[in-house]
Design brief:
The chain is α/β, with parallel strands linked by helices and 297 residues long. It folds into 2 domains: 113 residues, Nucleotidyltransferase, domain 5; 159 residues, ATPase, nucleotide binding domain (Nucleotidyltransferase, domain 5, 2-Layer Sandwich), CATH 3.30.420.40. Helix content is 36%, strand content 20%. The chain is built from 9 helices and 12 strands. It has a 5-stranded mixed β-sheet with strand order 3-2-1-4-7. A 5-stranded mixed β-sheet has the order 10-9-8-11-12, covered by helices on one side. This is Sugar kinase.
C-alpha cells in the first residue's frame, strides 16, 4: 500500500510517495495554474501514485484552512479563495485512503520534529521564509494545531516599527515585510532591477548593496517577531527554512541582532535561532508524516 504526501502552496503544488528512500528527483512539482486548479492537482496525485493502491494521503496546505471540514481557502489561488473541499475530492480519487489535512506551518513543525533540528527539544518554533511567512509551533513535544487548524500564521503578527500594507488588509504584518513579493517590491522601490526573490538572494550573497539592505530589513523584522513569540511560548529553539533563508550573513546577522536586543528575559538566555537542514522539502516531508499518522494521534 502506498502513502502520498501533497503540498498545496500559493504558487506550486508538490507531491510524492512517502518512503525513507524517496529522492528529490522523485518529487513531482507543478506551478498552480490560473484555471483548472483541481484538475492539475488531481493529475499530479495520480502521477505520484502510479498504479499503486493508496492507503493514506497527507495534505499540507497554505492557509487559511478549515481542518474539520477539510476545506482549503488560500488567498493566492483565486479558484479556491472562497473554499475548496480538498479532502472530499482526494477521497473520491482514492476511495480506500485515509486523507488528513493540516496547515503547512503545522506540517513544517512535524517535519522538523521528526527529521530536523527540533527532534531533540520539546518547545520550538519552525518558520518558513518564502512567498509567505508561516510557522509551526511545538510545545511540550506536541505540535499546536489551533481551534480551526490555523495556528502558526506568524506572517500576520505585527512588527514594531513597520507599517506596510499586507495582503490580508492589515498593516505592519511580518509577511508585508519578509514575504518574497514584499522584499522584491521594497528593493525595486530602492532602485534595484533584479526582479525576483531568487535574484535578490543571489545579490545579497554577492554583497550587492540593495539586496543586502533588503535582507537586513527582513532579518530585523523577523528577529523582532521571534523576540515577541519566544517569551509567550517559552521556547528554546527557532528553526528557519525556505528559499529566502539561504541569503547568508545579512539576513542572519540582522535576525541575531534583533533577537539579542529584544529577547532580554533571563529564561530566554539559551534561545537559539538556526537554519533548517530540510532544504526545500520541509513542508512536503511534514505532509508525509501526516500521512503516516494513525487517526486520533
Amino acid at each position: 500500500m502506498t502513502q502520498l504526501a501533497l503540498e498545496i502552496g500559493p504558487a506550486r503544488f508538490a507531491a510524492g510517495r512517502v518512503a525513507e528512500d524517496v529522492g528529490e528527483d522523485e518529487i513531482r512539482r507543478i506551478a498552480v495554474p490560473s484555471r483548472g486548479v483541481w484538475d492539475a492537482c488531481r493529475e499530479l496525485l495520480l502521477d505520484a501514485a502510479g498504479n499503486a493502491e493508496v492507503s493514506s494521503v497527507g495534505i499540507a496546505a497554505a492557509g487559511p484552512i478549515d481542518m474539520a471540514a477539510g476545506i482549503v481557502a488560500p488567498a493566492e489561488i483565486s479558484e479556491w479563495r472562497t473554499g475548496f473541499a480538498i479532502v472530499e475530492q482526494v477521497r473520491k480519487l482514492f476511495p480506500a485512503a485515509e486523507v488528513r489535512l493540516a496547515f503547512d506551518g503545522v506540517c513544517l513543525a512535524l517535519a522538523e520534529r521528526n527529521f530536523g533540528a527540533t527532534s531533540t527539544v520539546m518547545d520550538s518554533l519552525a518558520i518558513l521564509l518564502s512567498d509567505r511567512v508561516v510557522a509551526g509551533v511545538s510545545v511540550g513535544g506536541f505540535t499546536v494545531v489551533g481551534r480551526t487548524g490555523n495556528a502558526g500564521h506568524i506572517g500576520h503578527m505585527l512588527v514594531p516599527g513597520f507599517d506596510e500594507r499586507c495582503g490580508c488588509g492589515g498593516r505592519g504584518c511580518l509577511e508585508a515585510v519578509a514575504g518574497a513579493d514584499a522584499m522584491v517590491r521594497w528593493a525595486t522601490g530602492q532602485g534595484w532591477t533584479g526582479g525576483s526573490a531568487e535574484n535578490l538572494v543571489a545579490g545579497a550573497l554577492a554583497g550587492e548593496e540593495i539586496p543586502v539592505a533588503a535582507m537586513e530589513r527582513t532579518g530585523t523584522a523577523l528577529g523582532r517577531v521571534i523576540a515577541s513569540v519566544a517569551p509567550l511560548l517559552d521556547i528554546d529553539l527557532v528553526v528557519i527554512g525556505g528559499p529566502l533563508a539561504v541569503a547568508g550573513s545579512p539576513l542572519w546577522k540582522a535576525i541575531g541582532a534583533a533577537v539579542a536586543t529584544h529577547a532580554r528575559l533571563g529564561f530566554l538566555t539559551g534561545l537559539r535561532v538556526v537554519p533548517s537542514e530540510l532544504g526545500d522539502v520541509g513542508v512536503l516531508a511534514g505532509a508525509g508524516v501526516l500521512a503516516m499518522t494513525p487517526d486520533g494521534d
